[in-house]
Amino acid sequence: MSLVVDSSSITHSIQLAVAPVFLLTAVAGMIGAVAGRLARIIDRARVVEDRANRTQDGEFLARAVLELGYLRTRGRMANGCIGLLTLCGFLIGVTIILLFLGETINFRGHTWAMGTFLAGVLSFLLALVIFFVETVMATRLLNFHMLRSHEQAQRPAP
User: Fold this and answer.
1) Which of 15, 47, 81, 90 has the highest count of CB atoms within 10 angstroms of its CB?
2) 105 φ/ψ angles, rounded to the nearest 5 degrees
């Protein structure tokens, strides 16, 4: 393998390798959004646990256990989403390296580049699906809280 030092070849290689970089920007934005959601999930779980530890109300404890289960599931989904996004970023990085090497030193890695790019896009799409499911779960939990508040407001005072 000989290194090609032709500036036009290097320019073309950089142009070819830059296209997948835009996906990395989307991945970074998604990781930030999901990490923010995960932080909120953890904060809420701490609040619910703290309140549950300070009460003797059996009805509240039952609701707290139920909510903590939902929060645990949502946290696992957010972690899985971050894992898939990280995998996507790694695979896109490998794609960029393979494309650049393929153009500059005649490395025949275009098939591998295609495979890593498609695997990266697939992991991004799976992360989007998990993100959507997690947001739907959060909305259902919100509806659950609103329903409980309404039921408590309708009860006659003792």
Assistant:
1) 81
2) -120, 20
Q: Residue 138: pLDDT above 60?
A: yes
Among residues 55, 58, 66, the alpha carbon closest in space to that of 147 is found at 66
> Mean pLDDT across the chain, nearest whole number?
85
- CA dist., res. 77 & res. 153, Å (int): 33
- Non-local CB neighbours of 114 within 8 Å, separated by 6+ positions: none
Contact between residue 121 and residue 27 where contact means Cβ atoms under 8 Å apart = no
DSSP symbol at 13 = H
Cβ-contact 83, 46 below 8 angstroms: no
Q: What angle do CA 93, 117, 113 make, to 5 degrees?
A: 80
For 42-65, write each residue's pLDDT tens digit. Answer: 999 999 999 999 988 888 898 899
Distance CA 20, CA 32 (A): 19
| Residue with tokens 């997948």, as numbered in its chain | 20
Q: State the pTM of this model.
A: 0.78
